[in-house]
Design brief:
This protein is an alpha+beta fold. The chain has a single domain, classed as Creatine Kinase, Chain A, domain 2, CATH 3.30.590. The chain has 14 helices and 13 strands. The strands form four sheets. Strands 1, 2, 3, 4, 5, 10 and 11 form a seven-stranded antiparallel beta sheet that branches. A hairpin with a 2-residue loop joins strand 6 and strand 7. Helix 6 runs parallel beside helix 10, helix 9 crosses helix 11 and helix 13 packs across helix 14. The radius of gyration is 20 Å and the shape is globular. It starts with 8 loop residues before the first strand and ends with a helix. About 45% of the residues are buried.
């Protein structure tokens, strides 16, 4: 039996930068803005593919509460730096009305190559996500737990959904981000793999064929990190509220601990065909936190509220051990009250009912996202 993994956690969030006056995206931010972020927060803040985006990353933490505290600090640092330039950051996976054709990409060799390699599929990548790393030191264990936890990726996605609007339209989806991202190659659910060696051979085949340079160009919903000894989930939208992000982190960390406990008892989570998991991924993408997913064991649809109660029951022992029970319980509230996507739609409808135009209603959505960023 392999040694128990550390289950340390790191969180990466991508933010959009808006102009406080127009609430539209800042297409070409002052270079001094990113410099101000770096002066305050060091290399934990970086630029992203589009100039209107930035990314933050926490340090590794053993407890969700510590990761949450650092997220609060990083968000405050970015918000304070932005305020000096008349900007404001928002944590939403799409902007309610910005146009992707009006954005400019960051001029770096890596980003220039992506633009040339992937064409318009990457040029419209006006989306932000949240990635969570969990420390799994043993390579084969990394693959084993990745295979099993894939079942729960739709649950995490549903809790995180924050991208209902695209270029001023309500898309009818809770996560339109995935519609955009899925146009890229090597995305979606991962292959079920038998070992880390098989994963390396798969990557090696793509490298040998000249399709990719390394494993960082595999953009699955979950993958072995190319930089760290972690399993990195990438399916989630970025959460507008820190408490929602912390809740998802608690679920992910507790699930890893639970699946490791099963393995130590010679048990495992049942594997289902990717078609069934992909159907739940679509249901989460379409309906979000207040919708339904297939309970694969029962073979019938179940509300997110009921599924979250089951998760709380299953994961409570692990959450108690890891010290994240309070954060885990917050998923009950998300399933009851909705995610950012639901709040954005509610603000939009309320503004229209009060006589606002469609553009003014979108501006009201942005104002809500600005307020939630450091709430």
């Amino acid at each position: 039996m392999t040694d128990r993994p550390t289950l340390t956690m790191g969180v990466e969030e991508e933010y959009l930068i808006v102009d406080r006056e127009t609430r539209d995206l800042v297409q070409t931010p002052d270079p001094a803005f990113l410099a101000a972020c770096n002066a305050a927060l060091g290399d934990q803040v970086t630029g992203e593919y589009l100039q209107c985006q930035i990314e933050i990353g926490t340090k590794p933490h053993r407890q969700v509460s510590d990761a949450r505290a650092e997220l609060v600090s990083l968000r405050k640092g970015v918000a304070d730096a932005a305020a000096a330039f008349g900007y404001a950051p928002i944590a939403a996976s799409t902007h309610p009305f910005a146009k992707w054709r009006e954005q400019t990409h960051t001029r770096k060799e890596r980003y220039d190559e992506l633009r040339n390699d992937l064409g318009q599929a990457v040029r419209r990548l006006l989306i932000c996500g949240m990635h969570i790393h969990i420390g799994i030191e043993d390579e084969d264990l990394r693959i084993d737990l990745m295979n099993q936890i894939t079942y729960f990726l739709p649950h995490l996605l549903a809790l995180s959904t924050s991208s209902p609007f695209w270029e001023g339209d309500d898309t009818g989806l809770a996560s339109y981000r995935l519609t955009v991202f899925d146009a890229l190659p090597r995305t979606g659910l991962p292959d079920q793999l038998s070992s880390y060696g098989e994963y390396q051979r798969l990557v090696g085949q793509l490298v040998k064929a000249g399709c990719i340079e390394d494993s960082s160009k595999i953009w699955w919903d979950i993958r072995p990190s190319s930089k760290f000894p972690t399993v990195e989930q990438r399916v989630t939208d970025v959460c507008s509220l820190v408490d929602d992000a912390a809740a998802i982190a608690a679920v992910y960390q507790s699930l890893m601990a639970y699946l490791y406990r099963l393995k130590s008892q010679n048990l495992r989570w049942r594997m289902y065909p990717n078609t069934l998991i992909a159907e739940n991924r679509w249901q989460a993408q379409r309906h979000g936190a207040t919708g339904k997913l297939i309970d694969q064991g029962r073979g019938q649809m179940a509300s997110m509220a009921d599924l979250m109660e089951e998760l709380i029951e299953i994961l409570s022992p692990e959450a108690e051990m890891l010290g994240c029970k309070a954060e885990l319980l917050h998923i009950r509230r998300i399933a009851r009250e909705g995610s950012s996507a639901d709040r954005q739609r509610a603000r939009y409808r309320a503004a229209l009912e009060n006589g606002a135009s469609e553009r003014e209603a979108c501006v009201a959505v942005v104002d809500g996202l600005i307020a939630e960023f450091t709430a």
